[in-house]
Design goal:
Length: 136
């Protein structure tokens, strides 16, 4: 798989990370600190202390992929002021905006229709699609 899509889950790690860390160290953070499985297909997003660099770790089915972006000018917006746990779930659309330099502070997202079954899976019970949780 090359690229990301709205079918995936995205989690921001809210502490800064040393960008010298590779896939094994990032996977260790996911397991130990986020209490998650790095091989679950979710995208785990890590920012440097300066918020000039971002790394994203994802299992694509047969191996890990690490994406990295370093800004030549400016910084990514820090979401450390968001209340909650060390792991923060973010939508694909908001992640794209964050990586594009659009501020998410004060952003108002209008409600949209969300089908019970994703397109192409009509007739498949959600328990089979989502592992029994009933959500996408």
């Amino acid at each position: 798989m090359i690229g990301f899509g709205s079918h995936q889950r995205f989690y921001l790690y809210r502490s800064s990370v040393d960008m010298r860390k590779g896939l094994w160290s990032l996977g260790g953070i996911v397991r130990q600190e986020l209490k998650a499985d790095p091989m679950d297909g979710s995208v785990y997003v890590f920012f440097s202390k300066s918020y000039q660099t971002v790394k994203m770790l994802v299992w694509d089915g047969d191996g890990f992929v690490v994406y990295m972006k370093r800004l030549e000018r400016g910084r990514f917006e820090s979401l450390t002021s968001v209340e909650g746990e060390i792991k923060y779930e973010i939508s694909y659309q908001h992640l794209v905006m964050l990586l594009s330099g659009i501020s998410l502070v004060g952003l108002h997202h209008r409600l949209r229709y969300r089908p019970t079954n994703p397109p192409g899976l009509q007739g498949t019970p959600m328990a089979e699609v989502t592992g029994g949780s009933g959500t996408v």
